[in-house]
Amino acid sequence: MKYEFSITKNPNPKKKPDPDTLRFGTEFTDHMFIMDYQEGEGWHDGRIVPYGPLSLDPAAVVFHYAQEMFEGLKAYKSEDGRVLLFRPYMNAQRTNRTNDRLCIPQIDEDLFVEAIKALVKIDADWIPQKEGTALYIRPFIIADEAFLGVRRSNHYKFIIILSPVGPYYVGGLTPTKLYVEDKYVRATDGGTGEAKCGGNYAASLKAQEEAHAKGYEQILWLDGVHRKYVEEVGTSNAFFVIGDEVVTAPLDGTILPGITRNSVIAILKKKGIKVAERKTTIDEIVQAYKDGKFKEMFASGTAAVISPVGELRYKDEDMIINNGEIGPIAQELYDTIYGIQTGKLPDDMGWTVEVK
Ligand SMILES: *Cc1c(COP(=O)(O)O)cnc(C)c1O
C-alpha cells in the first residue's frame, strides 16, 4: 500500500445495533479516520482512532464561515462475504471539485479511497447484511484554523465516520410525496449548487420544515432564477418518465452531480431506454400529467438508491403518479443498482471496489 495510517484500537467496542430496527444515521462504529492539513506541509498524520468527540478551538473557521464539505457512499457485504464499495473514485473526484469551489486544498484520490478502505476494513463487522441495510460512509473536511478574519483556512481536518444504516425513508421503497418549492431556492447560477457542502443544506432546512408541516416528505426544487425548471429533490437527483423518455436536469452548475444519477443514466442507455439530460419546466410536467404522459418519477441518491415518487404537489395541482405506486423503470433501476452494489448481480460496469 502506498499510504500507511497509524491505528489505535478502541478499547471499549460498542454493541452492534439490531439490523431489524436500524434507522438512517443514528448509530456510529467503533473507529474514525482523521488526517490533518497544514499550509506548507500538506495532508499528513492519517490515523484511525476510537470514534469520539473532537476538540476544536471555538474560533475555528468552520464554525463561523462554513468552510466545510462532505461526501457520502456505502459499503455492502455480499452473500459470499466480500466487502464492496460503490464507485468510490467518483466520490474522490467530486471531493476535489467541491474543494476547489470552497478553497479547500485538493486531496490525492488514492489517498481518499485508501483511507476509506482502511477504516471500513477495521469496522467491517459493523456492515449489516439485511436487505436494504448498508454501512454508510461519511467523509468530510472542516477548516479548523482559529482565525476570525474571512479568508481560506490554513489548517483542515479530513475525517471519515461510518454509520450502519437502514432504509433512508422509513417506508423503504414506498413512494414518497413531494412538494414543489416555489418560494425558497436551493442554488443559483454561479453559487455552490454543484458543491457538496453543509452550507447548501443549512439554507434548505426551512423549506423542508414547511413542506413537512404540509404533509410532504421532501421538496422538489425549482431553479433559483425563474422558479420554472425542475432541479433536484432534497438530497437526491430527480428523474421524470414522460412518454417513452426519461428526463433529468443537466449538470449546468446548480445541480449536484450525483453518482447514482450518473449510474442511472448509464444503465438506462445500456438497456436501450431513451434518456435525456435537459432543462424541463414544471409546466411541461403538469401538461404531461394532464395528457396522461407523466408515467413515473423517482429520485436517485446514495442514501435511498432509488426512491419512487407517488405524489407531486405544485401550487393547486396534486399529481398522483402511477397510481401512487412504484413504476417499472424505478423498480428495474433499483434492482440493477442495488444488485450490483451488493454483489448479487455481476458487476459488468466495473463499478464495485473490493475492500481486502
Ligand atoms: C449527495 C447529493 C445527491 C446525490 O448524490 P449521490 O452521489 O448519488 O449520492 C443529490 N443532490 C444533493 C443535493 C446531494 O447532496
Automatic annotation (TrEMBL):
SUPFAM superfamilies referenced in this protein's UniProt entry, alphabetically: D-aminoacid aminotransferase-like PLP-dependent enzymes (SSF56752)
Any one GO MF annotation of this record: branched-chain-amino-acid transaminase activity
Broad class of enzyme this protein falls into: transferase
Keyword tags: Amino-acid biosynthesis, Aminotransferase, Branched-chain amino acid biosynthesis, Pyridoxal phosphate, Transferase
Cofactor: pyridoxal 5'-phosphate
Annotated Pfam families: Aminotran_4
EC number: 2.6.1.42
Xref: PANTHER family: BRANCHED-CHAIN-AMINO-ACID AMINOTRANSFERASE, SUBGROUP IIII AMINOTRANSFERASE
Matches recorded under NCBIfam families: ilvE_II (TIGR01123), PRK13357.1 (NF009897)
UniProt family annotation: Belongs to the class-IV pyridoxal-phosphate-dependent aminotransferase family.
Protein's UniProt name: Branched-chain-amino-acid aminotransferase
Species name: Lentihominibacter faecis
